[in-house]
Amino acid sequence: MSLFGSSHFGLPRMKPLSSKRVHVVSVLDIGSTKVVCMIGRLTPCKESSVLPGRTHNVEVIGIGHQRSRGIKSGVISDLDAVEGVVRLAVDAAERMAGLTVESLIVNVSAGRIGSDVYTATIDLGGQEVEGSDLKKVLVAAGQQSQGNDRAVLHSLPTGFSLDGERGIRDPLGMYGDVLGVDMHVVTAERAALRNLELCINRAHLTVEGVVATPYASGLAALVDDEVELGCAAIDMGGGMTTISVFAEGKLIHTDAISIGGHHVTTDLARGLSTRIEDAERLKVVHGSALANGADEREVVSVPPIGEDDRDQPLQVPKALLTRIIGARIEETLELLRDRIQKSGFSPVVGKRVVLTGGASQLTGMPEAARRILARNVRIGRPMGVAGLPAAAKGPAFSTAVGLMIYPQVADQETHAGQGGLFSPFGNGNSRMARMGQWLKESF
Known about the structure:
By secondary structure, the protein is an alpha/beta fold. The chain has helices at residues 79-97, 131-144, 190-202, 213-221, 224-229, 261-272, 276-286, 318-343, 346-349, 365-373, 398-405, 428-439, and strands at 23-30, 34-44, 56-67, 71-72, 75-76, 103-108, 114-123, 150-162, 165-168, 178-189, 206-212, 231-236, 241-247, 250-257, 299-302, 314-317, 352-356, 376-379, 385-386. The chain folds into three domains: 1-113 and 189-222 and 382-416, Nucleotidyltransferase, domain 5; 114-188, Dna Ligase, domain 1 (2-Layer Sandwich), CATH 3.30.1490.110; 223-379, Nucleotidyltransferase, domain 5, CATH 3.30.420. It is built from twelve helices and 19 strands. It comes from Ciceribacter selenitireducens ATCC BAA-1503.
């Protein structure tokens, strides 16, 4: 049975981690540039004061990555190609870890990710707030987000109110007349999720959980103070750039635009009349988001497109490269600035922005972002995970590492009122166990 096909089931829900057991978690980051599979061992630990909500130490014991095929701007365009790449990445990770993967936590960037806040209130009649009241108000907020063509990825209570007094983190045991909740709900189109699931099923694997890409990269790249005080994480991928806004320890807004590092490469290929792979190499080796006085004097060799070996490489001033790259980067950053402004969360973000993702590694990117976003900008690398090989420690691996971290914070979500209490995978008795787990007031 399909995870997303039936109206009775929501998306697969993560089983909360036991704080006493060692868990092995497998994740898959399907991006426009690369597909990464990571297998990690999660060992219970004391809570860290720097990284929020971490109950386990994560050690990566297997990793495999492949160049993407069959994906454009986060959307699957060729099922066979994606299936092949997924198999190769998973196979490499399995060999390194010495174990077999059956189910995976997967990210989703496609399907026009939506981010909405729903508010609901219930009458308490001056009584004490009990667990059943919390459940009632969460169900009421969750039911507003029901949509036939969209599936709920995350539903996070961002704050409670009592008698109109907002900003209450945990109302349990308090007295009042009216209990309210604000629920941040992240959704995606069901069709995009079905195609994602299909690719994974065709590689003989099942989906254990689905996480919005901006949430995953934020979990990996932000430190506690940023998550607490308010911060935007901008993940610049190959085909997509996503935004997540965190405050008071929670994800409160997400957004995405279909522009990424690959667009810079195609601009170069067109502008310099060279092949895509040559344009990519020029971007990585000589490219910069900011003009430099020496660029006019420096010359770079551009290989021609023709098959003829006698064709001489073209010599162009480096300034031309910088102009082409700078124009696209400026447009992207201005679009991001406007999106943050339009979302209404600009005051929450304040002066804090963290850039992550492969395309954030372009020379001059933090400076260009500081100028256009008019905020403090740092490059975020994945944190809080041991055992990463040197090649996987850069910003390009933030989403994969965030997927590894996600099981530790999954129980902050509420899945009431979405028909997603049961998970249509796993054995029969685990369904009842999960139901019991959910009823234990995991929010």
